[in-house]
Amino acid sequence: MEKYVLLAMFSQVLLTLTVMVVMGRRRFSAARNKTITMQDFATMQLNNAGDDVHIAGRNFINQFEIPVLFFVACLAALQLNAAGYVFITLAWGFVISRVIHSIIHLGSNSVKPRYYSFLLGCLLVLTMWVLLVMRVFAL
Fold it and tell me: What is the second-level CATH architecture of the domain 2-136?
């Protein structure tokens, strides 16, 4: 069972690294097109960069916010031997919600579906934590 939790965690890591590559490509494309200069990177004042550059940067930052709670929950589940079928399903649901969120954010950036995918991920992580607390306190 533990291997499926680890695979979900690895998938989230791959998503983060994929978003990092997208962000880098967009930034260097803006520099190549002279929208921003290489010196702008010294202070990260990318004010003249296009929306696509800012959106990719924001999505990359998103990968270090709620996913932190996901990683800690997964590590706790592994340590407590609490990674059953429900937990694994929730973990994979979270990763899928993050992939959908990133596809929307980096693509059409349609706010409503992006929000719903974000909210779903948050609810899945909350449920993972509730399961862990119930397991620890035998509720």
Answer: Up-down Bundle (1.20)
